[in-house]
Amino acid sequence: MIQPPPNCSLCPLASQGRLAPVAGVGPRTAKVMIVGEAPGATEDRLGIPLIGPAGKLLDELLQKVGLNRRDCYITNIVKCRPPANRPPEQLEVAACTGHYLSSELEGVAVRVIVAVGATATRYLLPAATFSKTHGLPHKDGGRVILPVYHPAAALHNQQLRSIVERDWAMIP
Ligand code: URA
Q1: Of residues 50 and 6, which shows the higher confidence score?
Q2: C-alpha of residue 89 to centroid of ligand 1, in Å
Q3: What is the spatial distance between Cα 93 and Cα 78, in angstroms, rounded to a whole number?
Q4: How far is ligand 1, taken at its centre, from the CA of residue 55, in Å?
Q5: What is the CB < 6 Å shell around ligand 1?
Q6: Cα–Cα distance between 77 and 65 in angstroms, integer?
Q7: Could you read off the pLDDT of 8-35 as tens digits, one per residue?
Q8: What average pLDDT does the chain have?
């Protein structure tokens, strides 16, 4: 499995955040892979994916379905923080996924891939429209891809909380 080196130069994002890209974490034997969008400020500082406010809510959502983050493989579509947390651009997604996420997808024997938010869904299920498919599992060979609302959505808009919870409850 290829992890991004501290001096990655595949796209300009690498030089914008802390010294190193934020690599995926978790056991290669994980049954569930969680794929977020890109590191935010906390992740950029600590070098761990989905550990900030959205990550705390993710922990709660996992707990509700009997999972612990330690048992999951957690990563992002793009490994470096985009300026002001803007969504990663197509070229950044292509550079990062083509090199790193593709190798993570091959190297971890997961059964369920949770595509967290619209950016991850666009990459993992290119034919799907996020608003119509979130919460619905898609078979992909021997794996299932589940697009879900990003926990950050519920932090920005409390009214989305029940939709976020319903999506994540589909993991089992
Ligand atoms: N932090 C991450 O690591 N990923 C996200 O998608 C959002 C915040």
Answers
A1: 50
A2: 15
A3: 6
A4: 7
A5: 36-40, 43, 49-50, 52, 54, 76, 116, 152
A6: 24
A7: 999 989 876 566 799 999 999 999 999 9
A8: 95
